[in-house]
Amino acid sequence: MPAKKCPFSEFPDPFAKAREADGIREIDDQGDPVKMVLGHRNVRKSAHDWKTFQSGARPGRIVVPSEVNIRDIRQIPFETDPPEHTEYRALVEEWFRRPLGEDYEAALADLIDKELDRALTAGAMEVVHDFALPLQSRALTLLLNCPAEEAERWIGWGTHVFRSDEDPLDGGKANQLYDYLDEQIARAAQDPTSGKDLYAHLLRAAYRGRKLTPEEIKGVMILTFAGGRDTVINAVTNTLAYFAGHPEDLKQIKENPELSARAVEELVRYFAPLTHMGRVATADAEVSGCPVAADTRISLCWAAANRDPAVFEKPNEVIIDRKANPHLSFGFGIHKCLGAAHARQVLKVLINALADRVKTIEVTDHDDNIEHWGDFDRKVGFHRLRVRMS
Ligand code: EMZ
Fold this sequence. Notes:
The chain has helices spanning 16-20, 40-48, 84-92, 102-122, 127-144, 150-155, 171-189, 198-204, 214-227, 230-245, 247-255, 260-271, 302-305, 340-357; strands at residues 24-27, 34-37, 53-54, 124-126, 206-207, 210-211, 277-281, 285-287, 290-292, 297-300, 361-373, 376-389. The chain is α+β, with helices and mostly antiparallel strands. It has a single domain, classed as CATH 1.10.630.10. The strands form four sheets. A five-stranded mixed beta sheet has the order 1-2-10-7-3. Strand 5 and strand 6 form a beta hairpin. The protein is globular and about 55 Å long. The two termini are 28 Å apart. Residues 63, 67, 75, 78, 162, 223, 226-227, 230, 274 line the site of 6-O-methyl-beta-D-galactopyranose.
């Protein structure tokens, strides 16, 4: 018998045809066109070629849709290039590996257990705003090593710091984050030597023989807040939707908890919470035989690469215990996601907790979040996902 279709847990691949052709498709983005690179091999190759494909001079230009009109603060290390990038990254690399520690994992398990308690007591909820957003914000307090109460303020900012319901590019909205960060940096600067949070860590850091400026610290913090926000929220929401449609996979993990690490990789491959990331060509170049003019943009389409049949067997199926899984959901090369260890731990702990404690998840209503890129319509998650859980 063919598997029953679960409309809410299906994330189709809109890129198949274009990837099969030359694997490049140009789309317009606010008058600044982007050549989307779709095939796994070319995405990796272009991501690897950081000399040709760089971050560009204008903050926000490598984000697609471009954020050049809504912000002028550079996010660090993401919007820098070597050698600067290498040195900035070295200042934060170890900090962002803390999630791998036992204590961190235990604290995360505790936090996620409380979120599940809340959900199971309520019996029904809207996952995006009542579960994924608070979970993402509260988990972020661990990454920053700051007081748990801070999360309550961040939850009020909604699912994205640069987007609102009214405006997909809302520069004004970001001011609440910027003002908050100015406040926090000033607070931490009063006691940088004994402070234990990420602000204090950055205030103590030495960069090229000097201290980081408040502007640079803010650049790191904005990335920490913005980069892991809608992406983690989508990943958490999509994970619940998936297991609602595939209880047999959750059962398999319950019987075999060490499977959860593979399940995380497979689910993030399939969902690809971030569709793509742009780069600016430093010189005339070529990708897959297609010319890319200097100072124009390409995008590395992680979502398309993750479904490339040349690399993944049955790319459009979730194989919860998939073994080799070179997906690109956390990027590739020198800019690969700094928050990946944290995100992976959040999802692993969540999946184990769901397997352990949840008997049924039933979707009662869903409103898909579909992104439009030229002719491509891609489901990235949900605006709303109502479930009953027991
Ligand atoms: C940028 C980006 C980083 C951007 C890894 O992605 O995430 C987006 O959600 C933000 O809008 O500014 O931080």
